[in-house]
User: Fold these one by one.
Assistant:
Number 1:
Amino acid sequence: MRIRRTVLTVLLAGSLAACQSGSPERTPLPAEPSPPAPSSAGSPPAPPAPAPPSASVASASPSPARTASLPKPGNPAGRATIPAAAKPADTGDPDRTVGDGTPASCTSAAVVKAVAAGGVITFDCGPSPVRITLTETAKVRNDVAAIVLDGGGRVTLSGGGKRRILYMNVCDPAQGRSSAGGDCHAKATPRLTVQNMAFTRGNATDPTDETGGGGAIFANGGGLKVVNSRFTGNRCHGTGPDLGGAAIRVRLQGANQPVYVVGSTFTGGVCSNGGALSSIGVSWTLLNSHFSGNAAVGDGANPARDGTPGGGSGGAVYQDGDTYKLTLDGTLIEKNRAAEGGGAIFFVSNDRTGNLTIRNSTLRRNVSEGFETDGLPGVFYLGPGNPAVTGSRLSG
């Protein structure tokens, strides 16, 4: 492993050598925050103050003459083919709808109730974008086979900077018993799909919370898919060697299914590791997505150096475990920062059976303040042989 602190541009067409070592608010929706700077104490900085974008939250008396929507997420230059398993769920015949056509009807209580009931959930909050600040975390019940949350491109769920937004944990008895039976980690249900949504200011920094991250979404067991969604200004624990995921933390997926992230944007996330995504032993497929301005702010890496609390790796993505895969296709990762290793990606397969594939993607201006793998700007990689990098551009 060689510490790299220079700008390096590499055009990759083949494999590279790797070194082994609430209520709806009436205020404007927040603009995407600027990249946060790591705190000297290892704690995440306060979320940036909201600034008004072009589309704002609907007033109490919205005009029906015009339908607005949130900014389109994802990487517009991405051309990855979307497999059937990663496509949006059909919401033409919803099981339940949050709201009765007005912003005031789209409340935290209505969201929490709908998520607990499961099924296909849509929103009817009026023709303009609305933000719903949750007063408690929405939790998926274990006896639900599937849940689809579709905001129609106009709904933002906010944690208000105080709490996690969505929670799914098949091993949590407080959420009931799974109908599938058997070991909780192996259960393929519930299947949670979030699409055409925005998630902002989720907070998983509670020191008594042992789930290890996921300011917007925490998932353990079951299955998760994210489509056409935006994650801004989420956060989790500021220190710790093997936790993370300011936006999403996944502990395990039932039946070894991958997490698909399609056409989605992650920005302004802050956590000890994984400023956007984090997992243990979980495969991810990231298609036509965009990661920018996220930060891993921990101190001491993993395992933690003597005298440090640990963390600081994976400015955008942090993965650990044994046999798993990370695939990027049509994805842009830029301007993320890691206080330790892997300004864009931290990928460690402990038994060297995991695989990293970067295809038709761009990684640029991602800062690894401590270390990264020689020849892979912004990436720290430990796996079998070389990662597969084709048609992609990686630069410091």
Note: The two ends are 17 Å apart (CA to CA).
Number 2:
Amino acid sequence: MTSEANKNRTLIAVIGDEDTVTGMLLAGIGSISSELNKEKNFIIIDSKSQDEDIEKAFELYTETRDDIAVLLINQHIAERIRFKVDTFTKAFPAVLEIPSKDHPYDPEKDSILRRVRRLFGE
């Protein structure tokens, strides 16, 4: 991918629980396209959400859309699609696992931290 293609990557996307997404929207990251299908750069996941819906959102933000620079995903939600998160190796968008109000961050589960440890032979 050229740096020219990366110039379009200006948005932060969020896959998270209601509190996380609300906080991020209040911080100003929300974007809804003016196109017909009104694509959003966020999705709220709750206990009723299916793993397939999470996978579709992950694929949309990482594979389909070329305007996403960073994807923030709650770690407990990333656990539900761990295989997808762990096998994603592209530089853009950067996929960062974040804690939520009810689920603290566990560095042992973080895919990026595990890759760094493997690089350093830990």
Note: The chain has a mean pLDDT of 87.
